Amino acid sequence: MSEINWRKSSYSGAGDGNSCIELALIGTTVALRESDDPRTVLTTSPARLGALLRSIKVGALDHLAAVPEA
Is residue 39 domain-resident? Predict the structure, then answer.
């Protein structure tokens, strides 16, 4: 098996000490992991990842981060 080429955003800065999301393309599957816990890997399709990113950009998921009122 060939080595997986994990990529992270240039916004994350240089070095290994930065916590960020890393992506890799494995065949036709997109793999995602956190740099501070690389053993846990999620997989999805490029279409589903694109749909998630579009939803985030337009704010469709902002309600999930809302703090409940006391």
Answer: yes
Residue 69 lies in a domain: no
Give residue 18's pLDDT.
62
Q: What's the structural domain count of the chain?
A: 1
Expressed as residue numbers, the domain containing 48 is 7-64
Instruction: Look at residues 31, 14, 51 and name the one whose alpha carbon lies nearest to residue 22.
Output: 31
47 domain residue, yes or no = yes
For residue range 41-65, list pLDDT tens digits in order. 999 999 999 999 999 999 999 999 8
In a domain? residue 11: yes
- The pTM of the full predicted model, rounded to 2 decimals, is 0.73
Place of tokens 């997986």: 4
